[in-house]
């Protein structure tokens, strides 16, 4: 099998969107005085879809969500020439080729995200060419089905958050992730607001469910140290990305406090970066996203690394490029699950672009043994609501 063409297209949503309500979600911009409304930097309304075509007629699909227009340029100008004419089965060689050729500028961030999209498309091809789902190529089914946690609960009105939690509890979810709306800029009043929100959600979901708390890098070390003991009584399973991704010392210090397990890795990009996080005991849960860390080839290696350190992997986002890895490794006990809603943050867009993304039933997602590759096709239903950049 030989690669004959690589096509990268940006899908930019132009349809109706739901404006973020209330304090919505803390994020890294919150610590900075800014005339820019911070939610503008937080919304992700575009996606790059990469199609790798072959001389067999098979086409593999990959995707990247970060900085989609730049990712497309990287695929077009730098990565496509490196894989054209090559055999997708040489995926390790091709991954190294892309990683090393772009290393001067690409080793963290959007460079790696673009590599990920091509790599994911290669694995989709491998599955399609063998008639097997990707998880089979990675080692097979380690779970009957994948437990997943409901991930939304942005910081809106507390009654609304409670209604949301109740609805999804009734649908059978037994694990939830909520977002904080306040950080250091909101002073002690914000601490109180944060605690009230966790209490409100626990009031509805009880204590026989898991609750995860998301900061999305909107706090700092001092603030987190102050609030951690106050949050402990709500028994969170983890506290996610309290500080910016580069502050590995901060993660290590917070995790060593042993009050609440600290999770991270959603904004880490390389195998070496994860080695550092693990060596430093900086996180108790690793949350890579396969469409950021160099694709399935690299995520598979990170799983092995985490297995050896006995640190669980719960990838960022659901989505097929992550589900296949979660299914095939014991290092990964469960998945994140973004429900399909009207377009708001943009996490939902995956459902609007692709057909085949599984829908959770009773808090589990299932992968089909008989669907080759990733099991995704392009959806036609919403095509007129995207601007598509060729
Ligand atoms: O789902 C997460 O872990 C994210 O960080 C997604 C982002 O949308 C913040 O809510
Ligand atoms: Mg997160």
UniProtKB/TrEMBL annotation:
Domain called Mandelate racemase/muconate lactonizing enzyme C-terminal: residue spans: 158-261
Cofactor(s) in the UniProt record: Mg(2+)
Keyword Glycoprotein included in the entry's annotation: no
Superkingdom of origin organism: Bacteria
Pfam name, any one: MR_MLE_C
Keywords in alphabetical order: Lyase, Magnesium, Metal-binding
Alphabetized InterPro entries for the sequence: Enolase-like_C_sf, Enolase-like_N, Enolase_C-like, L-lyxonate_dehydratase, L-Rhamnon_dehydrat, Mandel_Rmase/mucon_lact_enz_CS, Mandelate_racemase_C, Mandelate_racemase_N_dom
Protein name stated in the entry: L-rhamnonate dehydratase
